[in-house]
Amino acid sequence: MKWVYYGMMYRILFLSIAILFLCSCTRKDLGQAPLPDNYEEQFADWQEGRMESLTNPTGWMRLAGMYWLEEGENSFGSGDRVDIQFPESTLPEYAGEFILTKGKVRLQAADGVEFQYEDGTFRQKEIYDGEEALNIEYWSLEWLIIEREDLMGIRLYNKDNPKVDAFTGFDRYPLDPEWHLNAKFEPATEGETISIVNVLGQLVDTPTPGSIEFSVDGDVYTLDALEGEDQMFLIVGDLTNQTETYQAGRYIYIDYPEEGSDYTIIDFNKMYNPPCAYNLFTTCQLPPIQNRLDVAIPAGEKRAEGWEGLE
């Protein structure tokens, strides 16, 4: 019996060593990825695009309000006797009505008021047909209808914002090649979803293309991805959220693997603040539990100090 026992123990030890050996071999596919020759130029182009998305006339930083509609008539204007008060003195005290009827929204102007859509003006128009939302303008203001599950609202932008005009970017960690990493893509089964909650508390089962694996200091971590048009979208929490980066996590896009490959690049230098880090009028998605990593990632954008955000 003793020899049988020792034989079993040797077999278990041999299998354990073999598994560790195999794991150490397969994980050589992860770690730091070589940088392209023009990496700094590519990153500068990415950063320019990031600034454009923040500061253009309907960029995230120019959001000036979010207003949820009730079924039926919703009066609006700059006065205090309307259902929806826009923060803009050039708008009349009573400017008209947003009329929500069974998932569609019609805008009716008050007497003497006209709104602009594209190159023309109007006094009455269906601005949301349940699928397409029209961008409507009045002087420096621009708005459109958004739908969030069972909620229908107005997303308002104000193009007249000197603070945004002077914005030069959020504080960020220095560009670090060590956070330009190889990642392995593990496809999801067809129709698979993950649960994502937003800042409104709405929980949505969202399609996922799969997960990605990457390595930090020899340890392997996994992130579930969301589908994007051209890239995968990742919502990530890490230990820097406790001290230097936005408390609710950050976002990053990465490329799908090329055809015939299981590998891509995750460049944490491109991790960025979600809109709710610097603007109250957003409906940001938050990291799922499995994407809250027990590791610090000191790369990408830091907290949006000096901006109104969601604490």
UniProtKB/TrEMBL annotation:
Pfam families in alphabetical order: DUF1684
InterPro entries linked: DUF1684
Protein name as it appears in the record: DUF1684 domain-containing protein
Organism: Rhodohalobacter barkolensis
